[in-house]
Automatic annotation (TrEMBL):
Location of region: Disordered: 1-22
GO molecular function terms noted in the UniProt entry: transmembrane transporter activity
Superkingdom classification of source: Eukaryota
Source organism: Monosporascus ibericus
Pfam families: MFS_1 (PF07690)
Protein name: Major facilitator superfamily (MFS) profile domain-containing protein
Domain Major facilitator superfamily (MFS) profile residues, every copy: 57-500
Length: 500
């Protein structure tokens, strides 16, 4: 079965995943055509399989990300609980402790993502959870600035190995399903912030001073123990890849899962081709999506460390009140992520939704910079996070859909995070002027505005590239490229059309 060329009125097209899909053997054509037709109709069996995938994967993957975000953002709650006072951390020193996490994180991001198929998702994710859990528990014994720098670096190293979550989801879901599922997973970052606030409130009220430990020590102990225990459930229950499903699905359903995976240009080939990483780095489209993600991470990653401090230091809330009020901020963020990503999937638009979210975040940041009323500043904080956080998911989804082939997709998913986390270090460092943190908020405003501008240009650029591909469908060059697999040439395949 060859790829059916979409008529020019279609705005987004979906080609073959590889040479094997482009040129199917005649003996398998009828079965493959029947399955593809059923998928296109959204039949009952398709919906049943998709629901089972949702039930098997999303709760476990969401729990992994939830616990990782707890481990990442607990520093802000520990600060409010007295960490900086007990360890004599200046604002610059605290900013360094917040930033060093991203150094370890970005160094191990690329190998942690490329090795996902080799190690296996369940093995890799569960080992990472045990790793950051143990390190977080050890933070209880930290007594100096140097100790905190070391443990936060190691938390970043271990958490780097679970950041292939969007790549893992792309093994299982079709393109128009990916942002919503990514939102369900990533929105747990907002829930984790809320849960951290509730947990820290309870710990600070009831456990501070117990067993000779301060409240911030108890926060790290409790939040380190949970992922260690839950890692064993992930190891036992998380499905590996569509080609290696072990239980829970019939043979017919397993075949349908593989067909769905092939429709999203997953060939099942986990071969790492280093030269393709170089080609990716020479692709301007990769750098445009990276610029969007960098601008967004500058703001979002800093906010997760400074939201409790903003509430406490610049809005007049007590330490305990700040922990509770952060729950409301993250609850609004949770809703914002789900709404934006659902709209992106339903409309099949990425760039337009990112532009809208960037504008919303800019409004919130301008309000935070210009008004002094505490209630108004609190509403502005909610608007800012509701606009900033969804961009992460949509940008990563956009990256995954427009870079088919395992090496291209895995390295794009990893490297976009590497560069973004490097920029996030600067974001954390810029929030060094309490109580209003105007330097950091002003820099965030500029970076988030840049996200919207670049997203608009990339949207227009991809439409132009699709039009060019349609014009050149029947050229000798296009026919020559069709003899190569999607894993070899990625989005240069003449029958692959960009999503925008």
């Amino acid at each position: 079965m060859g790829i059916e060329k979409a008529p020019s009125t279609e705005k987004q097209d979906s080609p073959s995943a590889s040479k094997d899909v482009v040129h199917l053997e005649a003996a398998g054509q009828e079965d493959e055509a029947a399955r593809a037709d059923e998928l296109a109709r959204g039949g009952k069996s398709e919906r049943k399989v998709k629901l089972k995938i949702d039930l098997f994967i999303l709760p476990l993957l969401a729990s992994i990300y939830f616990l990782a975000q707890m481990g990442r953002s607990d520093l802000g709650n520990a600060k409010v609980a007295g960490l900086d006072e007990d360890l004599n951390l200046t604002p610059d020193m605290y900013a360094n402790v917040a930033a060093i996490f991203y150094v370890g994180y970005l160094i191990f991001q690329l190998p942690g993502t490329l090795l996902l198929r080799k190690i296996g998702p369940a093995n890799q994710f569960s080992a990472a959870m045990i790793g950051w859990g143990v390190v977080t528990v050890c933070t209880v014994k930290a007594s100096t600035y140097g100790h905190m720098m070391a443990v936060r670096f190691l938390v970043g190293v271990t958490e780097a190995f679970i950041q292939g979550s969007i790549l893992y989801l792309s093994f299982w879901y079709r393109y128009n399903e990916l942002a919503t599922r990514g939102a369900i997973v990533y929105s747990t970052s907002a829930l984790a912030g809320s849960f951290n606030g509730i947990l820290s409130y309870g710990v600070q009220r009831d456990l501070g001073g117990k067993n000779g430990w301060t409240a911030w020590q108890w926060i790290f102990f409790v939040e380190g123990l949970i992922p260690i225990i839950w890692a064993f459930a992930v190891l036992a229950l998380l499905p590996p890849t569509p080609e290696k499903v072990r239980f829970g699905f019939s043979e017919a359903e397993k075949k349908q899962i593989v067909t769905r995976s092939r429709a999203s240009h997953n060939t099942g080939d986990g071969t790492i081709r280093p030269k393709l990483i170089i080609k990716l780095l020479l692709d301007p489209k990769f750098w445009m999506t990276t610029a969007i993600n960098c601008g967004n991470h500058f703001c979002s990653n800093a906010l997760q460390n400074f939201i409790p401090a903003l509430l406490h230091e610049s809005m007049g809330y007590t330490e305990l009140q700040a922990q509770l009020m952060s729950v409301i901020v993250y609850a609004v963020t949770f809703v914002g992520i789900l709404i934006s990503c659902y709209a992106s999937d339903r409309l099949r638009l990425r760039g337009v939704v990112i532009m809208f979210d960037s504008a919303l975040a800019c409004v919130g940041l301008i309000l935070l910079l210009t008004i002094t009323n505490n209630a108004g500043r609190f509403v502005a904080a909610c608007i800012t996070t509701a606009g900033v956080y969804p961009i992460v998911v949509i940008c990563l989804t956009w990256t995954a859909t427009n870079h088919p082939g395992y090496t291209y997709r895995a390295s794009a998913a990893a490297l976009i995070n590497v560069f973004s986390q490097a920029v996030a270090i600067a974001g954390n460092k810029s929030y060094n002027d309490p109580p209003y943190y105007r330097t950091g908020l002003g820099a965030s405003l500029g970076m988030v505005a840049m996200c919207g501008v670049v997203a608009g240009y990339l949207d227009w650029h991809l439409k132009r590239l699709n039009a060019k591909k349609r014009r050149e469908q029947h050229t000798p060059e296009a026919e020559a490229l069709r003899q190569m697999s999607i894993d070899e040439i990625g989005n240069k395949h003449p029958d692959f059309f960009f999503k925008y």
